[in-house]
């Protein structure tokens, strides 16, 4: 079964990697969909985020990384899948993600969302927190893949 795991990934974190690696064990193909979100001001441009995700996942064989803009339901149709994987860390995430899943299902009735909680080691981690540490010149190396840490150091 082919699934899509979508996010902004600005930047991809070790928490994302954990969820992607777990999904790759469960499904025959995992499409990592890197979103161009017009409501956000990303630290990295879309092409660089796609590249960083690809470099972070070279050890997985059943992964495809794509950049996209527009509706996730359209990307799912384009890739002929009806399953989305979404990560949830807290009760705040659960409420938001349930609303998003219901909206997606309303727009595309065959589209289903599976929720994947993070492992305990990464439950607290988000890209927003990584960016905040980075903006204050903190060390994020323990939270992101090596290629992402290097890209952040080069941005300084």
From TrEMBL:
GO molecular function: ATP binding; pantetheine-phosphate adenylyltransferase activity
GO annotations of cellular component type: cytoplasm
Ligand binding (substrate): 8, 40, 72, 86
Pathway per the UniProt entry: Cofactor biosynthesis; coenzyme A biosynthesis; CoA from (R)-pantothenate: step 4/5
Cellular location(s): Cytoplasm
Catalysis: reaction(s): (R)-4'-phosphopantetheine + ATP + H(+) = 3'-dephospho-CoA + diphosphate
Major enzyme class: transferase
Domain Cytidyltransferase-like intervals: 4-132
CDD domains: PPAT
EC id: 2.7.7.3
Keywords on record: ATP-binding, Coenzyme A biosynthesis, Cytoplasm, Magnesium, Nucleotide-binding, Nucleotidyltransferase, Transferase
Main location per the UniProt record: cytoplasm
Record site feature (Transition state stabilizer), residues: 16
Keyword Endoplasmic reticulum recorded: no
InterPro entries according to UniProt: Cyt_trans-like, PPAT, Rossmann-like_a/b/a_fold
Role noted for this protein: Reversibly transfers an adenylyl group from ATP to 4'-phosphopantetheine, yielding dephospho-CoA (dPCoA) and pyrophosphate.
Assembly and binders: Homohexamer.
Descriptive protein name: Phosphopantetheine adenylyltransferase
